[in-house]
Design a protein that fits this description.
Number of helices: 5
Radius of gyration: 38 Å
Order of helices and strands: HHHHH
Structural class: mainly alpha
Shape: flat
Amino acid sequence: SFSFDEHSNNSQIAALFTSNYNNNNNNNKQTKIKIKMKLQQRPTIQEMRSRGILFDHPNISPQLIARAIKRARDKAKHILRAFLTTRPNVRELQNKNILIHVEAYTKHKRELSADLQHKIRMRPSLQDTPQANGG
């Protein structure tokens, strides 16, 4: 940091302004390079259209494009609704063993827990092991 006072000479002031100018000039060059690289990475208009991001076309009116988009959305909604109406309910999925019954799952967990508790109780204690008895 540099402060101006009555003892500052012209060469110090000139050096400070020159270095600031060069730093700004380098920053501008770096910024231009970054922008140029980003623009090269940017997808073309044709790519954006093919990916469904851009819908405009110079020869087709915007109203016609809007209607086509609405029609495509309505068709997708119709297909999705038809799929959801034929989707099996929870009971059917449980009967086919795709989903498990909550009650059966809870019972199974309780049984596993009880079995584990029983095995822990039946396990020999540290005093019952041969190493603890000096053997």
